[in-house]
Amino acid sequence: MSMTTAGPTVTGGPSLPQERRLVTAIPGPKSQELIERKNAAVSASVGTMMPVYAVAAGGGVIVDVDGNSLIDLGSGIAVTNVGNADPHVAQAVIEQVQRFTHTCFMVTPYDGYVELAEKLNAITPGDHAKRTALFNSGAEAVENAIKIARYYTGKSAVVAFDHGYHGRTNLTMALTAKAMPYKSGFGPFAPDVYRAPMSYPFRDGLSGDEAAARAIHTMEKQIGADRLAAIIIEPIQGEGGFIVPAKGFLPALQKWANENGVVFIADEVQTGFARTGQMFASEDEGIVPDMMTLAKGIAGGLPLAAVVGRQEIMDAPHVGGLGGTYGGNPIATAAALGAMKAYDEGNLLERAHEIGAILQSELTAMKSRDPRVGDVRGRGAMMAIELIDADGKPDAALTQRVAKACHAAGVIVLTCGTDGNVFRLLPPLSITDELLREGLSVIADALAAN
């Protein structure tokens, strides 16, 4: 880490110096001023995790208004997979915004929407005929996927899984497991939503087949396949704790769903777009979902989401049944097409594997040194450690102390988990090995000091 009195860098992108650089305490005086302005102008219900204000980002760093250069191990919650201000994305956005910013695809359509739909249909799992609809956020994609599944099947019940996270709208809050901060006080929630037990190898010790049998028993006995429109599941759970189900769990669920006329929806909002070392996490076990919800890494930081699914399912609702004023906005679709070029030309699947190997090695070393690291899990550039106390119970307080120490040292890290005791790492795929290792060293020091 270098120490300098240089002012903030205002030009972002990969050309930013790739270094951790602290010139003030975190937060610095300019960030503190903005914190005060935020408190006076923004709803107190909109929280912020890192007490700094960004002016530039790129590669594996974010620069704040005080000139501090911070190592980014969060990617804006798995959004900037291709890096911040990737040249493919930035150029596509510039060119599009100079042509037009909006017409509404439902009123005057444009080719970018169609081209992106073609691309998504081609790269998502399965060689069956597919159709795509574009939206603005992951929650909106999930909401529409459920709408489509209900229309197609003529059934209303939906099953989500313990620890799952699917969004903050009314329906997606019903699907989401964690109460605080996502659901508490915001009910009543959308009806006919049920929950089945998730495969959680660190806690339940079950094989994939055993965990699937348990979940299927719940669905058959407590809901009934004859009432069930869809099951929705994250192939690796995100906010719930980066829970990787035991091998065989997902294929068994998909097989049961297919045999019982239940639409199988993979929520790949966080796991999609090279994050796990596959373009989509479903590919790891050869899962071919009936529908997929996509967002986050799709457009290099611009708001965009998609539902991709089997033609007969996606075409089932009446004309006009799907849409939205901003869905598939031309600037966002241009950014997504730029991001697709970055994935193709940047060899980012291989890069995710390389990052995963470093994360696995360093986190496993932490576990060998500290019994409070109960589990290391994840795939590719989506890895986590679960922290526990001496009795093996979730230790949320330790997790928060370590995160706070990392933030003070100039490393952006995120926590998650239903019990708040999981430390998740989502570095941009553009990060250098040196910067990644430095960030992990800060984490290790923070853990040892707490």
From TrEMBL:
Its cofactor is pyridoxal 5'-phosphate. It catalyses: 4-aminobutanoate + 2-oxoglutarate = succinate semialdehyde + L-glutamate; (S)-3-amino-2-methylpropanoate + 2-oxoglutarate = 2-methyl-3-oxopropanoate + L-glutamate. Pathway: Amino-acid degradation; 4-aminobutanoate degradation. Its EC number is 2.6.1.19, 2.6.1.22. One of its GO terms (molecular function) is identical protein binding. GO terms for biological process: gamma-aminobutyric acid metabolic process. Transmembrane segments: none annotated. PANTHER family: AMINOTRANSFERASE CLASS III. Belongs to the class-III pyridoxal-phosphate-dependent aminotransferase family. This is (S)-3-amino-2-methylpropionate transaminase.
